[in-house]
Amino acid sequence: MKLEYPAPRRCDCTETLHSHQVEDPYRWMEDPDAAETQEYVNAQNKITMPYLEECCVKKVFHEKLVDLFDFPKQGCPFKRGDKFYYNFNSGLQNQYVLHQQDTPDSPGEVFLDPNTLSEDGTISSGCTRFSEDGKIMAYTLSVSGSDWKTIKFMRTDTKEELEDVLEHVKFSCLSWTHDNKGLFYNKYPKADTSDLGTETNSNIHQKLYYHRLGTSQSEDVLCLELPEEPHWMPGCEVSDCGTILLVYISKGCEPVNKLWVHDLPDQGLPEQFNFTKIVDNFDAEYDFIANKGRVFYLKTNLKADRYKLISVDLDNPSQENWKEIMAEKTSVLEWIGCVRGNLLVTCYMEDCVNRLYIHQLESGSLIQAVDLPPGSIVGYSGRSKDSFMYFKFMSFINPGVIYYMDLSKGEDNFTAEVFKETAIKGFNSSDYVTNQIFFTSKDGTKVPMFVTHSKDLVLDGSNPTLMYGYGGFNISLTPSYSSSRMIFIKFLGGVFCEVNMRGGGEYGNDWHHAGSLASKQNVFDDFISAGEELCKLKYTSPKKLAIEGGSNGGLLVAACANQRQICSGRWYVT
């Protein structure tokens, strides 16, 4: 069957970028709500949909999709006030449902179900933050995937909705003062939100506000604005002790921020905000981990590409007085949690898989490693006031295991116990295998990729293979379970490959910068070299190899499809 695709209109659009004339004849397609764009999409669908409807395996494939997607999914339990909470999806629900329970082992009941808020299930709940006493929950709602949020409030004992509603919220922090009377959040000037879910415009002049429960949003206290820098964004959080407000001022996507602090009174707010500027430049990133009195512990990449932990005494905050608590390692320090008041849980990324360790807070000394197979930590709960923690492990062939660790007794030899395993009907992880392969890219750089397939796969070059990549914005790809990819592997004899190219954050900022801006070509070369390696190792052949990417990964596959035909064959782009 010969398919006649609609010919898109080419417009006369040319820009001068870095002294080069760059044509962009399809600029008009960047407006997804324009009549012409919608007409073009509809014309494409008139070709695609009939073809799919006539596909002889569509019904069977749909049944298999449902079987592998329809399984219970649960997040880590977390304690707020005297209750525990967890997010749960029974299988095919559009949105996760927040449940409340008395103990982690007691039956949970529905606390907030976003699926009931719209007929099509497109209203989602994002961020949730509980007051210090756990009696009020603030939560955000989003329509159709939009970045614009509405903040609402609910009593945790009666599930009663409060009258407080906060609008014009986007990319916002949510941080309660410890008197339980209100929270800090971010708001933009009033903007047009008629295109929720498809908006592409940027926003400027974000401000930091404080909202007191029981008052109108128009009465909210303006805490910080930066009129001379309209693109800067001032987020914040309140320290564990409740006495210090930390403000993070960021710009763009680079991992850098300013750090300002302000003392908070026991009740209410200071009469006016005069911030102490601990860091007033964009040289590095600083993230609050814990504090002991006026000594604050910060995760930073200052002169540490892969991050380290430092301490800063707020009474003596000059940089020459900062102390290094945990030095930079050869692997990337992804995140740190503080539990039991004096213990640190560190998550490192070592060759694209996560490893967990427990350290002493004030000295940074290692207490123990947590024994886990290669994979990713995709969930964590545990706070300084908690004497326990939960974390969720996942891999390409493991749909998820939640572990519990009791940290209340002793100083070492803590044990990770299985709290809940994810089970999928008809799926047995022992039937599959994941291998990590390091290949050589065009310029000689060693690059890793994960290859997952059934254990009985024959390496004869005939296997259909899907190769996925991203390679940008300092975002790391780590092992994760995907039902759609497992269907490809299980029922179509497929091979799935995930490539950890430069541009991501797998080996720190140097790895990221080696695949960005003027070095972006390295990302494409890495991806092309990965495809060549798969063919060389007989996993597949050019005619059996498809490539996939979304967002920045869409740029990747488009560039590779135009730049190179692998092994004298062709790319199949998805």
Q: List low-confidence stretches.
A: none
Taking the sheet with the most strands, its summary is: 6 strands, mixed
Radius of gyration: 25 Å
Number of discrete helical segments: 6
Provide the β-strand percentage band: 35-45%
Helix content: 10-25%
Tertiary shape? globular
Structural class: mainly beta
N-to-C span: 20 Å
The strand order across the widest sheet is: 32-33-35-34-36-37
DSSP, total strands: 37
Average pLDDT, to the nearest integer? 94
Keywords:
five-stranded antiparallel beta sheet; globular; 574 residues; six-stranded mixed beta sheet; 37 strands; mainly beta
Chart the SSEs and their pairings:
Elements lengths: L13 E4 L2 E4 L11 H19 L4 H12 L3 E2 L3 E3 L2 E7 L7 E5 L7 E4 L10 E8 L5 E8 L4 E8 L5 E10 L3 E3 L5 E6 L19 E6 L8 E4 L8 E6 L5 E7 L7 E6 L12 E4 L6 E7 L2 E6 L7 E6 L9 E4 L5 E8 L3 E8 L2 E8 L5 E5 L5 E6 L6 E8 L2 E9 L9 E6 L10 E9 L5 E9 L10 E4 L14 H10 L2 E5 L9 H5 L7 H16 L8 E4 L3 H12 L8 E2 L1
Parallel strand pairs: 34-35, 34-36, 36-37
Antiparallel strand pairs: 1-2, 3-5, 4-5, 5-6, 6-7, 8-9, 9-10, 10-11, 12-13, 13-14, 14-15, 16-17, 17-18, 18-19, 20-21, 21-22, 22-23, 24-25, 25-26, 26-27, 28-29, 29-30, 30-31, 32-33, 33-35
Helix pairs in contact: 2-3, 5-6
Please provide a written account of the structure:
By secondary structure, the protein is mainly beta. It is built from 6 helices and 37 strands. The strands form 9 sheets. It has a 6-stranded mixed β-sheet, sandwiched between helices. Strands 3, 4, 5, 6 and 7 form a 5-stranded antiparallel β-sheet that branches. The protein starts with 13 loop residues before the first strand and ends with a strand. The relative contact order is 0.07.
